[in-house]
Amino acid sequence: MNRKEQIQTLKEKIFYHNKRYYDNDDPEITDFEYDQLMSSLRQLEQEYPDLLTKDSPTQTVGGAAKRTAGVLVRHDVPMLSLQDVFARADVVQFVEAIQAEFTNPEFVVEHKIDGLSLALRYEAGQLKVAVTRGDGIVQGEDVTENAKVIKDVKKKLKEAVPYLEIRGEVYMSKQAFAEVNEAQELLGKKLFANPRNCAAGTLRQLDSKITKERNLSLFIFNVQAAKGIEFKTHTQAYDFLKKQGIKVIDDYRICKTVEEVWAAIEQIGENRGDLPYDIDGAVVKLNDLAQRDQLGTTSKVPKWAIAYKYPPEEKDTKLLDIELSVGRTGRITPTAIFEPVRLCGTSVERATLHNQDFINELDIRIGDTIRVYKSGEIIPKIRTVIKEKRPLGTEPFIIQPICPICGAPAVREENTADMKCTGVNCPAQLERHIVNFVSRDAMDIKGFGIAYVKELIAQGYINTVADIYRLKDHKAELIEKGIIGKEKNTNKLLEIIEQSKSNEPQRLMTGLGIANVGKAAGRELMRHFKDITILAKADIEAIKEVRDIGEVSAQAIFDYFSNTENQLVLEALAAAGVNMQSHDDGGDDRLAGQTFVITGTLPTLSRDEAAKLIYLHGGRVSGSVSKKTDFVLAGESAGSKLIKAQDLGITILQEADLLKMVE
């Protein structure tokens, strides 16, 4: 491969990973691996300047601005990235170059927060606009409504400064991230890879309620522009912001020599494992703002600042055991237990082994010497096995097809590497089953939060979904113990539980937690069978006659209703008065075979009401636009789904069009 091909290959890889990181919030490689790709490209372009092009990722900033959270907004001040460096020599070169330019310059060394850049614009002390980085040069996304629900975003300054634009990093604390992923797992949804991805996806949500629930945080790290007030130094600007109640970067240090700068970088590195949030390096920036203006910027980075990236720390240790645990989705996860080692400032002794395929690929065995590192300086992972140190008599580790919690059979899911427990009443999965049962898509028992579910299970009040309808029998105890709250709150929840008994049976079908049976499948099953007790007695062939129910789903449904424990749960639900029968709802099949996608805010109908209307007349509702979509029902602020539909030439409907189709 010649140098031109080598550069082109690197550019294509980086463009691909840029899209995964900036646009999809779903990176495939670690920050360190990405930095190495960029470093290799930068070095080749320096050696062969005639091969450097304007569209090279070394000459551009960030990703594309997306029409998801709102309209696109032009940047008043470019939101540039920083020049990454990886060695002490690079830091020395940067500091000495500035010292040669100015007399006794001051430097500020501070944490480089691993999050998503955000600019806040204030007019007369009032927050007017919040903008993401977008392409970094021309435009970003307006996320003002979401920014307003972040607790660290000040909607009003103490002083009515004519104009102030500040830039910060939206991030998610380690605790908040753990809570979000716990909720995702309970709901059977995909887990976020890391706090940065979660923060980025959350800030771009169309629903600010979700943004608020996920508990984002914000550090401000720069004043971008100001009118009516002047600052001489970066730290003077920080002092002003702190007086306004604005949270700036923690624990920054003012340094005057190379030795002081490097010592500050080392100290941040030593303590980074103890921080309640993630950092991906240390930033060194010139303190004097006039000197910054003199140095200026390149097309991509300021000349007055650099970001030092810490190398991933690796250590060898001995594997003591492989522990099996069962998650709330039933997935069996193997975890390596090893002799404790200290990495990035913290002691670690556990790392996930993911699944049997991962174990086989590593050929990891109990007793092996393993090399452990921290991915992104956060999550402990195993790099490799030092096989030359393997003791005699070790054996390959095999995950047995039995649940380690309840003893039920465990099976490998089709087209995945995951082993899952098949025990429908496995204690490890009970929380998820209950959360699914009470969720909006299922029985819609509002106010039945995760905290209540956990406590009621822990105290033995709930062992199956049917026990929810027996909680009224323990009303006095629940009030006395305060599990759901005081008398008023307890009465309210018990009343909502009672009301849920009259729900349509498709909600109950969704709530039972049968594999592959969600809202759409539950609705089709009830349109066909009308009664859950009749469905429970149907054979596989009869179930397969239902629209959209294939072999795998039919088998899962048949197996569920053939299970004795599930039959007892169903009997208990019926005895409690939970509705099992569909009633004539005036529906028809005029929309049969048609797939709709609903986006934006409709004039009079909620999205759920519009979906129900479509289902009532035999249509289908999908969450994403594709070539198989027949219609997109679009309301106000329709966003990216509308754009994609227009690109694909899909028919766009207004609410009035839908009502006319079904009138």
UniProtKB/TrEMBL annotation:
<feature type="binding site">
    <location>
        <begin position="31"/>
        <end position="35"/>
    </location>
    <ligand>
        <name>NAD(+)</name>
    </ligand>
</feature>
<dbReference type="InterPro" id="IPR004149">
    <property type="entry name" value="Znf_DNAligase_C4"/>
</dbReference>
<dbReference type="GO" id="GO:0046872">
    <property type="term" value="F:metal ion binding"/>
</dbReference>
<dbReference type="Pfam" id="PF01653">
    <property type="entry name" value="DNA_ligase_aden"/>
</dbReference>
<feature type="domain" description="BRCT">
    <location>
        <begin position="586"/>
        <end position="663"/>
    </location>
</feature>
<feature type="binding site">
    <location>
        <position position="309"/>
    </location>
    <ligand>
        <name>NAD(+)</name>
    </ligand>
</feature>
<dbReference type="GO" id="GO:0006260">
    <property type="term" value="P:DNA replication"/>
</dbReference>
<feature type="binding site">
    <location>
        <position position="406"/>
    </location>
    <ligand>
        <name>Zn(2+)</name>
    </ligand>
</feature>
<feature type="binding site">
    <location>
        <position position="285"/>
    </location>
    <ligand>
        <name>NAD(+)</name>
    </ligand>
</feature>
<dbReference type="InterPro" id="IPR013840">
    <property type="entry name" value="DNAligase_N"/>
</dbReference>
<keyword id="KW-0479">Metal-binding</keyword>
<keyword id="KW-0464">Manganese</keyword>
<feature type="binding site">
    <location>
        <position position="403"/>
    </location>
    <ligand>
        <name>Zn(2+)</name>
    </ligand>
</feature>
<feature type="binding site">
    <location>
        <position position="169"/>
    </location>
    <ligand>
        <name>NAD(+)</name>
    </ligand>
</feature>
<feature type="binding site">
    <location>
        <position position="421"/>
    </location>
    <ligand>
        <name>Zn(2+)</name>
    </ligand>
</feature>
<keyword id="KW-0460">Magnesium</keyword>
<protein>
    <recommendedName>
        <fullName>DNA ligase</fullName>
        <ecNumber>6.5.1.2</ecNumber>
    </recommendedName>
</protein>
<keyword id="KW-0436">Ligase</keyword>
<dbReference type="Pfam" id="PF03120">
    <property type="entry name" value="OB_DNA_ligase"/>
</dbReference>
<feature type="binding site">
    <location>
        <begin position="81"/>
        <end position="82"/>
    </location>
    <ligand>
        <name>NAD(+)</name>
    </ligand>
</feature>
<feature type="binding site">
    <location>
        <position position="426"/>
    </location>
    <ligand>
        <name>Zn(2+)</name>
    </ligand>
</feature>
<feature type="active site" description="N6-AMP-lysine intermediate">
    <location>
        <position position="112"/>
    </location>
</feature>
<feature type="binding site">
    <location>
        <position position="133"/>
    </location>
    <ligand>
        <name>NAD(+)</name>
    </ligand>
</feature>
<keyword id="KW-0235">DNA replication</keyword>
<dbReference type="InterPro" id="IPR004150">
    <property type="entry name" value="NAD_DNA_ligase_OB"/>
</dbReference>
<keyword id="KW-0862">Zinc</keyword>
<dbReference type="Pfam" id="PF12826">
    <property type="entry name" value="HHH_2"/>
</dbReference>
<feature type="binding site">
    <location>
        <position position="110"/>
    </location>
    <ligand>
        <name>NAD(+)</name>
    </ligand>
</feature>
<dbReference type="Pfam" id="PF00533">
    <property type="entry name" value="BRCT"/>
</dbReference>
<keyword id="KW-0520">NAD</keyword>
<comment type="function">
    <text>DNA ligase that catalyzes the formation of phosphodiester linkages between 5'-phosphoryl and 3'-hydroxyl groups in double-stranded DNA using NAD as a coenzyme and as the energy source for the reaction. It is essential for DNA replication and repair of damaged DNA.</text>
</comment>
<dbReference type="InterPro" id="IPR036420">
    <property type="entry name" value="BRCT_dom_sf"/>
</dbReference>
<dbReference type="InterPro" id="IPR001357">
    <property type="entry name" value="BRCT_dom"/>
</dbReference>
<dbReference type="GO" id="GO:0006281">
    <property type="term" value="P:DNA repair"/>
</dbReference>
<comment type="similarity">
    <text>Belongs to the NAD-dependent DNA ligase family. LigA subfamily.</text>
</comment>
<dbReference type="GO" id="GO:0003911">
    <property type="term" value="F:DNA ligase (NAD+) activity"/>
</dbReference>
<dbReference type="InterPro" id="IPR012340">
    <property type="entry name" value="NA-bd_OB-fold"/>
</dbReference>
<keyword id="KW-0227">DNA damage</keyword>
<dbReference type="InterPro" id="IPR041663">
    <property type="entry name" value="DisA/LigA_HHH"/>
</dbReference>
<dbReference type="GO" id="GO:0005829">
    <property type="term" value="C:cytosol"/>
</dbReference>
<dbReference type="InterPro" id="IPR010994">
    <property type="entry name" value="RuvA_2-like"/>
</dbReference>
<keyword id="KW-0234">DNA repair</keyword>
